[in-house]
Amino acid sequence: MSHANISIFVPHLGCPHQCSFCDQVSISGACCQPNETDIDEAVKRAVESPRYDRENTELAFFGGSFTAIDRDYMVRLLSAAYRHVKDGKISGIRISTRPDCIDRENLNILNKFGVTAIELGAQSMCDDVLLANDRGHNADDVRKACNMILEFGFELGLQMMTGLYKSTFEKDVLTAEEIIKCNPHTVRIYPTITLKNTKLEVLYLSGDYQPPSLDSTVELCVKLLKMFEKNEINVIRTGLHSIDTDSYVAGPWHPAFKELCDSRVYLEKIIALLPEKGEYKIYVSPKEVSKVVGNKKVNLNTLSGLGYKCTVVADDGINLSDIRVERMNNSCF
C-alpha cells in the first residue's frame, strides 16, 4: 500500500521572511492555528478510512516553517501527534521547515517526539536567485542543515522551485545537481507560479519577470526527473496539487503537470525505439495508456509528424513504465 500523510497545515506564524512568490498574509489569514483537538480528529478520520494502513501512515505538519513557530506551541503540536505514534495509530511524524531554522536544539526536540522525516524548502542552490527572491538564507545554509538532519538519522527531503525570478534553465539544473550532492531521500519539484499580492506579481506586471512557458518547464522537469532517478532519489511531487484560480496571475500551471512530464518521458523512450518510419503498435501497462497517448493525443500527433503511425495497446503483461514496440509487419524489437 502506498504512503499516506495526515496533513496538518500550520500557517506561516514563525516565518521570518516574505519570499517573492509567497502571499504570506493571504496564507496565514486563510487558515486557523491547528490545536491538539484538530490533530486528534484528523487521526481519527484517517483511522476510520477503509484505506487506512498504520505502517504507511504518518502525520505531516506542512506550512514551511514548523521549527520557526513559537517553541511552546511547536512542542504542544508535537506532543499531541506523538501520542498517536505511541498508541500505534501512525508510524511517524513529518515536518517541513526552512534551512536556516534548523539547529541541534530543534533536532533534539524533533527526535524526542518521534519525527521521522524533515523536508527543507531549499528552492534554489544559487545564492543570487535566493537573494533576488528574498529567501533570507543561502545555499550553504541548505548544505549545513542537510548534514545535521542526516547526522541525526532523520529522513531528508528537499524542495526546489523552477523558474524563479533571476533563475534560468541552467541555474535550475545546477540546483538539482547541488541537491543531489546533499543526499536527500526525497525531492519535490515546484514550478514557480505568480500569485496576486506578491513581489513576483509586481515584477511580472512591470515586465521585469517573465515566467517560463509550460512547454519549457515540462522540458526542464523531465531533465530533472531523469537526474534524480539516475541518483536513486525519489521525487514525491512534481507540480502544485492545485491553485486558487482567483489568486493566479501567471506561470506554468497545469492540473496534470506530472502527467505531462511522464508523457514527455514516454515520447522520448518511444522515439529511441523506432529505427525507421512506419506503422507500429506500442504495448504498455493499462495504467499508463493515457500518459503514453499524451494530453490531447500530443504524443501520437508528434510521432505522426515524424512519420510514425502508432497505436497504443494496453497489455497486462507490461510492467509500469515499460513499453514494447511492434512493427505492423510483425517484426518486434
Describe this entry's structure for a reader.
It is built from 12 helices and 12 strands. Helix 7 packs parallel to helix 9. The two termini are 34 Å apart. The chain is α/β, with parallel strands linked by helices and 333 residues long. The model is unreliable at 25-30 (pLDDT under 50). It has a 7-stranded parallel β-sheet, covered by helices on one side. The chain has 2 domains: 4-255, Aldolase class I (TIM Barrel), CATH 3.20.20; 275-327, Hypothetical Protein Ychn, Chain: A.
Could you give a quick summary of the protein structure above?
The chain is built from 12 helices and 12 strands. The protein has about 325 residues and is an alpha/beta fold. It folds into 2 domains: about 250 residues, TIM Barrel (Alpha-Beta Barrel); about 55 residues, 3-Layer(aba) Sandwich (Hypothetical Protein Ychn, Chain: A), CATH 3.40.1260.20.
